Amino acid sequence: MKPYYLSGALIIALFSASCERGGNNVEAPATYEFERNGVSTVSYTGQTERLAMGGELGSALLDPTSTEVRLDEMFANEDASGGDVDPFTDAALNASSKSIRSKVAASAAYFSSNATASAQIKADFDQWIALQVSDILPFVDSLASAGKPGQIADGTTPRYVDGLGLEYDQLVIKGLNGALVLDQMLNNYLDPSVLDAGTNREDQENGVLVEGKDYCMMEHKWDEAYGYLFGGASDGASPLGSLGGDDVFMNKYLGRMVNDADFESFDTDIFNALKLGRAAIVEGDYELRDEQADIVKKRMSEIVAVRAVYYLEAGAVELAAGNYGSMFHDLSEGYGFIYSLMFTQNPETGAPYFSKAEVEAMLEDLMDDGANGLWDVEASTLTMMADDIAARFDFTVEQAF
């Protein structure tokens, strides 16, 4: 693999994070632990619940007995707290007032003034769930072929695809990496418009707590961003020891990154930035806070792009070998990560690295090499898309694969 070169500005920023000390002598703790008067001020229970809901949803999408009503309720949780439908195996999740759907494409930075796009994105997930029930689950005992849904072998693992070769469970879960986790983390809770909303700065400086809580609002917003990445860890204060196994979303794929020499610092880069940014809030250094948020935005966006490129290249390899089951699985995962690119944020522009329109065009290109979608996809299409994605970021296709 080629060396992973960083821009000069990012090297400076990451040096600040790695030293865990800001320009005004703000120092991060060794772990993500913050207290006031001996009481923890860290709280992200809502994020932990949503991550757990997503894990159960991912499993239920492959359960042939699942109904659309059950899956919709797992996604939207509109019948919470003692309603008629209890879709989760965890009773606490059934009683929770939280939901996944309400937080999909719901960030302040990207969707507060774009309700139409938010509704369209939510509708995509609703449709994928419906198609899993109507076009895949009834055919799990049939053999898939071009234009016909069913199962197809990926080594010794069966994959369940529609007539175009898509696994809708992968579209849902991989798409939520962007539409839920990235959008809430980068474009909502780490956005200055949320951190500094209302009297948040004044309250932070004067130690004014949220009523009935042990934290100031700005602290809590930052913690909620942290929770979308590390909220599933058994040790939330020191989560890197279990990295990759704590949820099915971005934690899992950050774990994949650190096994690659080109990206092995990503876990500490992000963790250190989140710690130092939180410490900066406590000390009232909001410039340092925003510098650390930018590191997180860049790194988290890169994870999505690297995985999109990886799955496109893996799909091309499997296509050349004639392993269609493996190819469909790779490209279904890739589809979800490409979809997630519209929720990335380039900290230099405050905009996604790929717009919604660009993402939709890429996905159309992925599926339109022939009438049967992925059954007809050409290797040149996959490599072209991988090249285009990598070109927007500071890595190469070779590094990603």
Give the gist of this structure.
The chain contains 17 helices and four strands.
Describe this structure in words.
The chain has 17 helices and four strands. The chain is mostly helical. It has a domain at 38-300. It has a two-stranded antiparallel ribbon with strand order 1-2. Strands 3-4 form a two-stranded antiparallel sheet. The longest helix has 36 residues, at 286-321. The chain is globular and about 65 Å long. The termini are close together. The model is unreliable at 1-21 (pLDDT under 50).
- Total beta strands: 4
Query: Ranges with pLDDT <50 over ≥5 residues?
Result: 1-21
- How far apart the termini lie comes to 9 Å
Structural class: mainly alpha
Strand content bin: under 5%
Reported for the largest beta sheet, the result is:
2 strands, antiparallel
Question: Topology, pairings included?
Answer:
Layout: H1 8-19, E1 35-36, E2 39-40, H2 45-60, H3 68-76, H4 91-95, H5 108-111, H6 115-136, E3 150-154, E4 157-161, H7 168-189, H8 192-195, H9 200-206, H10 217-230, H11 250-257, H12 266-283, H13 286-321, H14 324-340, H15 356-367, H16 379-391, H17 397-400
Helix pairs in contact: 2-10, 6-7, 7-10, 7-13, 7-14, 10-12, 11-13, 12-13, 13-14, 13-16, 14-15
